[in-house]
Give the backbone structure.
Amino acid sequence: MKASCAFMRVVVLSVMSILLVPSGQATAAASITPLEQIRETVGSILTVMQDKELSGPERRGERRERIMALVQHRFDFAEMSQRTLGRDWKNRTDAEKKEFQHLFAELLKNTYIGRVDAHSDEKIEYARELFSQNDPYRARVYTNIIKNGRGIPINYSLVKKGDEWFVYDVIIEGVSLVRNYRNEFGRILGQEDFAGLVKRMREKIESNEAQREE
Amino acid sequence: MHYLRFFILLFILLLASTGPAGAEEEEYFEDDWPAEEMATRIADPLEPVNRLFFQFNDKLYFWVLKPLGSGYGFVVPKPVRTKVANFFYNLKTPVRLVNNVLQGKVGRGGVELSRFMVNTTVGVGGLWDPARHWFDLAPAEEDFGQTLARYGAGAGIYICWPLLGPSNIRDTLGAGGDYFLNPVSYLGMNGESDTVLALRAGETVNGTSLRIGDYEDFKAASFDPYSAMRDAYLQRRRIQIAR
């Protein structure tokens, strides 16, 4: 009995020691990993948000501009637009695609920044990254924002272009931004034409801006 | 001797749950959705009624809950409110523990048990969450709706309940089951139903005070908030069930 207990202890300890080896060391390769990329961008966003010099209400515009620029750089809005419109994307002219992409980017930036801004005083856990088994150019990064004691999972889907990884979807608490808008736009396009959708998007962005001014 | 065995068992349970990401995570990657997947929607034959209740909940939030939550938040400092929320969350451990076990997720059940033991003792009755911050034990959420889904129950039609919000037939039954696993429900057995009501109202207002702005953001982001919320509910439940 005693011997079996000692044996168990050895087994448990050795299993533990294997699991406790930091996995980051093994993957530290020459090129930047998706997790590092997200950590860099989200870290910079938080730095701007928590910057005392930019904190006053009169500098809100400037703070927003800076965050917008960071998001703009890391998000692949072309990929997002294409995924969101799906089949309808192919039927659009280049000008229409461009316009849609621009409006959608505005909408997404508002939504995403709103979500991150609401949690800016909280801690972020960068949980892990996972590479797609079918496609080495795709990965997902799992993060948790600890807000008021609860963890809010925010996950990023990334695609590799060149040496860098770019975000093509954000999944907040299990709800994908792209899929969400895909459904919403699908519903609108079921009733109206493309021009109608573009008009609705413009109105939405304007009303969001008006709300922010208040 | 018994203690030792217990701790070894506990360790194994913990290890089982902290292992590398399994195949279920890969499900996440199927986001090259086929065109028809877009049409995957929950049946919503009660839509007119549901929309009415959605409007009711919307007004309830802006006219009642939000003012109450803001006033309460103005008086009670945030760290206190967070601890109140932690307390109620810890109290509901039986819901998560039992549903993990019912689904055969012994490792995750072990996490919930460990969290409860650590947070109730070291975390002073669940006010703090040292299990998460010191031992890296994130909660393993499960509810009876998810258990029913695991046993093959379909979602049924979508329901937007007044007060309670988005649900479906299965999750409504699930919420009924979870009611009996929430210790607060048993306080009313000796006729102290006022206490139970006060506790639940307190939990709701406290929770609202910590989430003010979320619903506003959601509405600002969506073109048709009713449908967007239904989609979001469907997506979120699907992932929770798969986990």
Chain A is about 60% helix and 20% strand. Residues 30-213 of chain A form a domain with the Nuclear Transport Factor 2; Chain: A, fold (CATH 3.10.450.710). The longest strand of chain A covers residues 150-161. The beta strands of chain A are 123-131, 138-147, 150-161, 164-172, 175-176.
